[in-house]
């Protein structure tokens, strides 16, 4: 066998073990008995030790040195790019540090969930301080004298920097704030109210998953404290959550996670259990979840279909017709929870987290001061005070599991989705007619053909450029938001 064949055979086993580790994480958040948490932390640490050893194996370095990338085709060169990147990053992180991070973040996730349920920030702060300290060490090792936060962002969005993200946010913030101000001065659509039994929500949410192309023979839908997607290829799991008085929490969390899940399910099978066999970055991943959730799922056409479905399941739930329902679904409203935020304000929630986690990683903000810093910033940005920790700094799972640098990719995904939506609408001019029938196949098929099937073939920016023929820019997203909400609110 050639060095390339040897490397790819070795890599396949590493990728398979990575999937097993991911399944342990999925189980922890969905089905694991509560008292199993300490044992699971040890299991996760053991698995991370095995994976770290494989990813830094000296043979990988030897094979990479032996392979001449110019002799490979486009797919082979992409595989080498991804393996080199992983190897170069992983060898910078000591094995004992990687294992300790896996162990502590597994334990921290459970402690966060309990602290959130108990509205007890103090119970979470000691383990958060541990996580922050460990992740800062990891970031310093990866940065090798450079910016620690840049090194962490690069883990989720290759070649992206805090400077670039800050410039993007600076371009977006004034227009978002101006749009929010104008909308909040107008008459608001009716809010949803009433009781929506969780079993009926789950029945409809599974139908929504299938409507957007999620293959239940290769996936499943479960409930978790915080919705997420896990896995790739032929085993992709998604979760959602229910609220008795807010069915949109369930339905749009599901559609969002289905966007992630379909991306993974639709990657070419030829790339299964290779570095190319998963989404190329979290920004691109979020572009799929956000376009499914918002530009498709919250469109006037699709909400007309969803109104009829909800009426069939729940009976008369107080919204008189499909047009009023479209306003209800897209209602701009005060709220604390990022995942429940309307499209106008969502990115403002991300900007808050971006600044706070940069300060945590730089050592400018101590974990003990996080709650006060969050509450002060939220009041300044949104104009009302956080009422309880689960609506404030305890609402998201990300920091408990060490995902520093992840949050800005949500907004980056919105920016990418704006570009993709503009291209999709040009390519499928009768899209709304299909969505009004609950038929998403043209839209999801276009995304599969132009983006999802390629997995990690191209870098993130080129992935969006190839699919949309547009250089990534906030302009399409901002234009979409201004047009949509100006029409909806009569501005």
UniProtKB/TrEMBL annotation:
The keyword Protease applies. The active site is at residue 257. Pfam families: Peptidase_M32 (PF02074). PROSITE patterns: PEPTIDASE_M32 (PS52034). GO terms for biological process: proteolysis. Keywords: Carboxypeptidase, Hydrolase, Metal-binding, Metalloprotease, Protease, Zinc. Its cofactor is Zn(2+). Zn(2+) binds at residues 256, 260, 286. InterPro entries: Peptidase_M32_Taq (IPR001333). It comes from the Bacteria. It catalyses: Release of a C-terminal amino acid with broad specificity, except for -Pro. Binds 1 zinc ion per subunit. One of its GO terms (molecular function) is metallocarboxypeptidase activity. Its EC number is 3.4.17.19. Belongs to the peptidase M32 family. Broad specificity carboxypetidase that releases amino acids sequentially from the C-terminus, including neutral, aromatic, polar and basic residues. This is Metal-dependent carboxypeptidase. It comes from Shimia gijangensis.
